[in-house]
């Protein structure tokens, strides 16, 4: 896929890096925690023969800057608006994990969004699993400010994502740990997208007025499946899809998303 990195300016002056591949209706791809635009490149390649596939680095990641002094959702919404303006003024959004939460938030705030595909937005439904402690956001920001990237990754993986400590501790020895640690400073932005404890924000979701597809893999964690189902019930224009054989790592098999996305974005 032959693309070049472009830069747009967000409302606060932050430079946001993006790449565009293909022609047709714009589809903006939004990665979640521990993601920069490289993690959605495979899906962009799958979509480029049919759409204008847009990948971008959320602020503070990859080639994007960060001029803000806090971890405000408003700044990320302004970034997304700048990307949409750059590719024509309206777009469909495809979000993965906390990127799906950002896509849903953008639609609820009435950005010029035509359709939303939300893959496994990681809200935590009541009773589905333990919720993060009330002070997680504060502790996460403190670790990032102190430059403790390993500690920030450990906190996010265990208390926010809910993985066992032993599993995450073992990940320290893997090749992927360096990639996770390099993006650790951006984690407060991901957690800022949620209300304390990460419940499904049914009231806000009810204000979404565009066609919405909420997807979960059939092999994913049960709490993520429940969250996707609850989001689909909360959004008036939504439908729920269980993607056979997939789990939260669907971006490693992006072709499995093509059929349902082509049905959504016509």
UniProtKB/TrEMBL annotation:
SUPFAM superfamilies: alpha/beta-Hydrolases
KW Methyltransferase (keyword) present: no
Domain of life: Bacteria
Pfam families cross-referenced by the UniProt entry: Abhydrolase_6 (PF12697)
UniProt KW keywords: Hydrolase
The keyword Glycoprotein belongs to this UniProt entry's keyword annotation: no
Name of the protein described by the UniProt record: Alpha/beta hydrolase
InterPro entries per UniProt: AB_hydrolase, AB_hydrolase_1, AB_hydrolase_fold
Organism from which the protein derives: Rugosimonospora acidiphila
Ranges where the AB hydrolase-1 domain occurs: 27-256
Molecular functions (GO terms): hydrolase activity
């Amino acid at each position: 896929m032959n693309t070049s990195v472009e830069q747009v300016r967000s409302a606060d002056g932050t430079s946001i890096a993006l790449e565009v591949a293909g022609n047709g209706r714009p589809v903006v791809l939004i990665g979640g925690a521990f993601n920069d635009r490289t993690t959605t490149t495979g899906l962009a390649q799958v979509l480029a023969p049919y759409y204008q596939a847009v990948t971008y680095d959320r602020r503070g990641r990859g080639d994007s800057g960060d001029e803000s002094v806090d971890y405000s959702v408003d700044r990320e919404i302004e970034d997304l608006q700048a990307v949409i303006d750059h590719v024509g003024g309206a777009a469909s959004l495809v979000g993965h994990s906390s990127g799906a939460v950002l896509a849903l938030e953008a639609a609820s705030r009435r950005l010029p969004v035509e359709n939303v595909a939300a893959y496994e937005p990681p809200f935590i439904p009541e009773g589905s699993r333990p919720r993060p402690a009330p002070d997680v956001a504060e502790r996460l920001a403190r670790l990032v400010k102190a430059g403790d990237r390993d500690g920030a990754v450990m906190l996010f993986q265990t208390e926010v994502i809910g993985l066992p400590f032993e599993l995450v501790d073992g990940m320290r020895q893997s090749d992927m740990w360096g990639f996770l640690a390099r993006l650790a400073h951006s984690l407060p932005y991901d957690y800022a997208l949620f209300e304390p404890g990460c419940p499904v924000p049914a009231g806000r979701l009810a204000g979404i007025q565009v066609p919405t597809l909420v997807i979960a893999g059939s092999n994913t964690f049960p709490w993520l499946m429940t969250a996707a189902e609850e989001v689909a019930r909360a959004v008036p224009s939504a439908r729920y899809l269980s993607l056979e054989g997939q789990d939260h790592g669907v971006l490693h098999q992006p072709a499995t998303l093509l059929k349902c996305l082509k049905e959504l974005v016509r």
